Each structure stands twice: as structure tokens, then as C-alpha cells.
Amino acid sequence: MRNLEQTNRRGFTLIELVLVVIILAILAGLVAPMIGGLSQISTPTGSKSQRRIVTETTMLAIRDIFLSSGTRTGLWADMGHVPYRLPRTLHQVFLTRTELLSLEPARAETPRFHPVTKIGWRGPYATQPTGTYPDITTIHRTPDIRWSDDNFTATYGDAGDSGFIDAWGNPIVLQIDFNIDNVITANEARAARLVSAGPNGTIDWAFDENLTSEDYATAYQNDLTDDVVVYLGIEP
Fold this sequence. Notes:
Strand order of the largest sheet: 7-8-9
Oligomer: single chain
Order of helices and strands: HHEEHHEEEHEEHEHE
Distance between the termini: 78 Å
């Protein structure tokens, strides 16, 4: 009887092993194509649609920095939902409050994070840039107009700044209207968006507070722009 029980146990163990091997084989068959697909998408030779997917995924992750990411409250809530406290460039999400103030001393109105009110800058909000801003003085927005002539560096960032790069190797920029008095309207806050220049390397989707995400979707469907645009979804 004891030998029979031992035999039964041994047989049951073999069945378990066979089942495990079968399951692992099935999982391997499923995972391998996924890994191959991701590897293909991440290569510089990826197709236009693949690069768009990579770029949009990056931009959605950036949007989480502003709105929320898991259990962490986003930058917009930390700033007390005050538009003029928003960063002017994406490079600023990599800065501590001290670094931010040293970069722009006039932003002293941005409060230090208060643990009770939960309001104030507690950056850096991002730690892993996907690249640095290239020397964009040679990038053209329209024929015969260089970005440097169009205040690109003053608006979107300087060469060497930590930032987010799209799948075409160009900087992803934050489009939001800040005038000299740091005044920004509710409509301008709602229109804040992330923009990738797309395949042609030029930003065609100029800032306009009246252009909505629906307008962009229509423009893309009509092939009027190859820019990749993600609205932040800020609601003052």
C-alpha cells in the first residue's frame, strides 16, 4: 500500500510538471511577439504609425505628471489650480523649487509645498528625461523663419535642457500662453497642450486658445497637420 501511495504521488508530481511546462510554453509564445513588437517600435527605423504610438505614449505619461500618476497628486493640484504657477517649459518639471526660483526669481509666488494644504511646488516631478533639447536654431517652423527668430528657445526651452524627445528625435514642447505679466486666462489654461513636431520636424499647430482637441482630431483626419498633440485637460 505504501508503495502504491508513493507511486501515485510520483505520478501526480509528473503531471504537475507537464502542466507547468505546457503553461510556460504557451506564455513564451505570447510574450515573444510582444517583446519583438516593442523592440521594433523603439527602433529608429520604426514606421510612422509606430513612432506616433511611442510619442503619444510618452506624452500621456507627461500629462500624468500634470494631472495625476497613480496615487500621486499631479502638478496642477499642487499649484492650487492657479494657472500662472504652471511651468513655462517641460524642463522645469525636472527642477526642485530652489532650482526653479534660481532660474526664474520672479516666480517667488510659487509656494513651497505645505504638507497640510497640499499646495506648493514639490518637484522634481520627473526624474528620467528621454533626452536633452537639441540646438533648435536650425529647425524651421516655416520657410525662411528659424525657431530662434520665433522665440523658440525663450518659449519652449534651451539647448541642453533636460526634456522629453519624440520618436523622431525632436523635443516635445509645452504650449501654453504666458505673457509678460504672467497673466493667463481660464481658456488659455484649458488650451494647454503637449506638441510633437511629428515626421516633418516642424510645429504647425501654433498656440490658439480657441483650438480644441476636437479641432485637432478633425485637422489630423483631414491630413492638415502631422503634429502629435495631447491636451493636458486642465480645468481651472
